[in-house]
Amino acid sequence: MTYALVLNSGSSSIKFQILDPSADASAEPLVSGLVEQIGEPQGTIAIKIRGEKVTSELPVPDHSAGLEMAFAILAEHGVGPHDVHVSAVGHRVVHGGKVFSHPEIITDQVVDMIQDLIPLAPLHNPANIDGIKVAREMLPDIPHVAVFDTGFFADMPPAAALYAINAEVAGANGVRRYGFHGTSHEFVSQQVPALLGKDSSEVNQITLHLGNGASCSAVKGGHAIDTSMGMTPLAGLVMGTRSGDIDPGIIFHLYRTAGLSIDEIDTMLNRQSGIRGLSGVNDFRALREMIDNGDTDAWSAYNIYIHQLRRYIGSYMIALGRVDAITFTAGVGENAKFVREDALAGLEMYGIKIDPERNDLPNDGARLISTDDSTIKVFVVPTNEELAIAQKATLLAKG
Ligand code: ADP
């Protein structure tokens, strides 16, 4: 049995899993853990080992200490990276810019190149680099692989990737659509051809990753031809706390007229907008409860969310010309049947018909939720970004 370690380092957290890359997408990982509140007076390390939970509350001064403490707990339980012969370490890296379209074995030069991309992802790449540096020091004998959130979109056609802003300014500052959640869109879209009984090269599809962050992609013959997130993950669909697409003029207005600073506007659009900014909550379970209790703000937030989602679905149907499948994934997409129903309601004339009984089935693996006579098939395919990263890292590490 060979295992992979997958690391996702944030500015104050490290998420990790040790898992079998050949396992089924629904299989429990051997280990999954979260180190939180790094750098704060009190930190938390919560690890699930073969389904059993181990939690410690203690100060975690930095990423290096966090990973060391987590590995010590794993070693006590006999599941440290060396105990279980981890053969590859996969790192989730948010921004690969124009340079990284595929996963890369991490060398000092690759670290420098990811560092050069910090201006494009000032909040994410530095934390990813911290995690890479610490893990390479602790596990120098195991190959480390960077898997980029933007990778799946690196080859999008220029018509979809470029913005109609001044070309000189855009070119000098790396302004273009990069897209995010690529590992998830790729993982999910790769499963659809088999569900349709077709070859990937023949399949045109729309994938809807609806989690706390949300994005939508048009995929033709296995290649992304458009996606809703942009130069940053703020663009596109309405999300849990992000606005999605807005008129960029709103930013000038808030700066000039309302006297908000650029940082305040940034925080407001990324953290205090979307479903939360409209209703007060960002979890769809809480939103649904509020709607059921007659809360009009929650109802309005939901309608804005669905309206924007349908806009994107419509525009990708036109971009693709012919659509074989529409697939829902991530927390909301996999669990909120009402979102799936409302996103595709009344589209029978376009060949889309959801089967209410199939849509009602619990979230248990990839499944068809459209009727047999729906010409566009609608699926729910659970995403598993850690497994996708583990598979990519293992493949590359093998050489
Ligand atoms: P992230 O973007 O943080 O990875 P996830 O893909 O895990 O997010 O999705 C988290 C979101 O999924 C929650 O905020 C919640 O809105 C939604 N969600 C999770 N479970 C359910 C459920 N049973 N019913 C409705 N919504 C759910």
Fold and architecture overview:
The chain is of the alpha/beta class. About 40% of the residues lie in helices and about 20% in strands. It has 15 helices and 14 strands. The protein has helices spanning about 65-75, 110-115, 125-140, 160, 165-175, 180-195, 250-255, 260-270, 275-280, 285-290, 295-320, 330-335, 335-345, 355-360, 385-399, and strands at about 5-10, 15-20, 30-35, 45-50, 50-60, 85-95, 105, 145-150, 205-210, 215-220, 225, 325-330, 365-370, 375-380. The strands form two sheets. The chain has an eight-stranded mixed beta sheet with strand order 5-4-3-2-1-6-8-7, with helices on both faces. A six-stranded mixed beta sheet has the order 11-10-9-12-14-13, sandwiched between helices. β4 (about 45-50) and β5 form a beta hairpin. α1 (about 65-75) crosses α3 and α10 packs across α11 (about 295-320). The radius of gyration is 21 Å and the shape is globular. Adenosine-5'-diphosphate binds near residues 213, 284, 331 and 336.
Quick tags:
Nucleotidyltransferase, domain 5; 2 domains; 15 helices; binds adenosine-5'-diphosphate; 6-stranded mixed β-sheet; alpha/beta; 8-stranded mixed β-sheet; globular; 399 residues; 38% helix; 20% strand
Question: Which sheet architecture does the biggest sheet show?
Answer: 8 strands, mixed
Q: Major sheet: order of its strands?
A: 5-4-3-2-1-6-8-7
Radius of gyration: 21 Å
Give the helix/strand class.
alpha/beta
Q: In sequence order, what are the helices and strands, one letter per element?
A: EEEEEHEEHHEHHHEEEHHHHHEHHHEEH
How far from one another are the termini? 18 Å
Each distinct ligand:
adenosine-5'-diphosphate
CATH superfamily of the largest domain: ATPase, nucleotide binding domain
Would you identify the CATH architecture of the largest domain?
Answer: 2-Layer Sandwich
